[in-house]
Write a structure and sequence with these properties.
By secondary structure, this protein is mostly helical. It has helices at residues 5-16, 22-41, 50-57, 62-67, 72-84, 88-113, 121-136, 140-157, 161-174, 182-189, 203-221, 226-243. It has twelve helices and no strands.
């Protein structure tokens, strides 16, 4: 039942604050995300990959951590947190904080690309939560990679190509599967721009496609888990509710 707490917070915040004001929207995102961050960081032996990540963090030497097969930036982040705090829950909190980065980024993309018609922030945040819940409760490297891919996408939509590529490379160094992010980037490159490109597509569809792709891929790998069996089905409904509301737009600088 504790995992429903972010959903309860989200609905109450939407009842209290105006959804039409972006300043209020940021407050809603903050409370919603922080609630989940504390849930994901204060767990014990819960999650699909608890044992390997816990054992990795508690390896007896930094040399062994560096020699581990995990991606380089994930190892570096773990070593830095271990040097500073030597506490696995602090490490989980750092990882969970990327959920705030991700929700803010996707909301920013949606806010700009859905103009002038608007969208439901409640449905969008629920979709993010349903899609990404499993990763933050187990697939730590995947969670970090997808969050950074969302930031990369935001930079790309703002035509900041160099920043987008740099962030994408960082995502790959957290989890190599982020290299597949090239697919939505190619799709974006085919978006119509002043009639010179092949076809027109809502940029929000690209961001949601990325979330769907990683979530379903993670679900296939872990299809023995009951939770992951249900997430893609429920989330796809929420995703469609978001997409059907929108109109194509561009991100402002």
């Amino acid at each position: 039942m504790v995992y429903l707490l972010p959903v309860v917070v989200l609905f109450f915040m939407n009842l209290i604050l105006s959804k039409s004001n972006f300043r209020y929207s940021k407050i809603i995102i903050l409370f919603f995300s922080v609630t989940f961050i504390f849930i994901s960081s204060l767990r014990y032996r819960i999650g699909t990959d608890w044992e390997p990540y816990y054992e990795f963090f508690h390896l007896p030497s930094y040399k062994l951590m560096l020699e581990h097969y995990f991606e380089p930036l994930y190892k570096l982040l773990a070593i830095i947190v271990k040097l500073l705090f030597n506490n696995y829950y602090a490490f989980l909190f750092v990882i969970g904080s990327f959920f705030l980065v991700e929700t803010y980024t996707v909301n920013k993309i949606a806010l700009e690309t859905m103009k002038p018609r608007g969208y439901s922030s409640t449905i969008l945040l629920l979709a993010i939560y349903m899609f990404r819940f499993a990763d933050y409760m187990g697939g730590q490297r995947q969670a970090l990679a997808v969050a950074l891919c969302m930031v990369s996408l935001m930079f790309r939509l703002k035509n900041k190509t160099f920043a987008s590529i740099i962030v994408w490379i960082l995502a790959i160094l957290f989890h190599y599967s982020a290299s597949i992010f090239i697919i939505p980037m190619i799709i974006y490159g085919m978006i119509e721009e002043r009639g010179r490109r092949i076809f027109e597509i809502n940029p929000l569809v690209i961001s949601l496609f990325l979330i769907v792709f990683f979530s379903i891929s993670y679900w296939i790998i872990n299809n023995s888990l009951v939770l992951n069996r249900n997430i893609p089905v429920i989330s796809s409904i929420l995703m469609k509710m978001v997409v059907y509301q929108g109109k194509r737009g561009t991100l402002d600088n």
